[in-house]
Amino acid sequence: MWRWRPRTAAPTASACSDGGWGGVAGGGGGLPSPSPSGPVTPPALLPPLPRSPRTFRLDQAELQRRFRSLQRRLHPDGFGQSSQAEREFSEQHSALVNEAYDTLRRPLSRGLYLLQLRGVELQTGADSEADPEFLSEIMEINEKLAATDQEDARAELEVHIAAKQEELAKDVAQAFDQDDLQKAKRVLAKMKYFANLEEKVKSKKIPS
Fold it and tell me: Distance between CA atoms of 49 and 21, rounded to whole angstroms?
């Protein structure tokens, strides 16, 4: 059974061999028994379907429901009177569930993780591979953001950026549906640019 690996760890071929979300889904939906010396196998965040495909598309409501259900069962607050091994088990698995949920709930991080599972990673500083027209668009938005101090103008840019991200998310979903990893890589690189712009808009917002 494939196990969930933190995003900092590169998956091996054997870890990905079942073709499903096994590491996040856990395969059966139950909690593993505490075992400080054994392998860590996080439980289900996705529906417990055998060999459920690692697709980009997922049901966000179901993902959130399963996350909340698991955290109610795994949160360290519920293990205050338990043994040291059980408390450590709770802390470790609760953190893994948090990381899995944080990765899967956002289109960009989910897409990057899917690429990582297939041995494909975005390289930093790969502007030479980007479309010049696209880079020009990003520069224009950056200039508008830097030049404005008006909340209305920033809000307009924020809506524009969100619309672009939604459009790109549809493109990357289609790319994964077609198993076109190079296209998915190109689209995700664009999404990273817009994600950076989103952070810039947030940092310039006037506190209410």
Answer: 9
Read off the pTM.
Answer: 0.72
Contact indicator for 174, 119 with CB cutoff of 8 Å: no
The whole-angstrom separation of Cα 147 and Cα 135 is: 18
What whole-number distance in Å separates Cα of residue 54 and Cα of residue 176? 10
Q: What mean pLDDT is predicted for residues 126-145?
A: 84
3-state secondary structure of 79: helix
Amino acid at 140: E
Reference 168, options 193, 201, 141, 140; nearest CA is 193
pLDDT (tens digit per residue) in 95-111: 888 998 999 999 999 99
Delimit the domains of the chain by residue range.
Answer: 14-105, 127-204
What phi-psi label fits residue 33: left (phi over 0), alpha (psi between -120 and 50 degrees) or beta? beta
Nearest to 25 by CA among 101, 90, 112: 101
Topology of the domain covering 127-204: Monooxygenase (1.20.1280)
Find all residues with CB under 8 Å of 111, minimum gap 6, and list them: 56, 172, 176, 184, 187, 188, 191
| pLDDT digits 0-9 by tens, 150-185 | 888 889 999 999 999 999 999 999 999 999 999 999
Paired with 20 in beta bridges are: 53
Tell me the CATH class for 14-105. Answer: mainly alpha
2 half-sphere exposure, CB direction, 13 A CA radius: 24
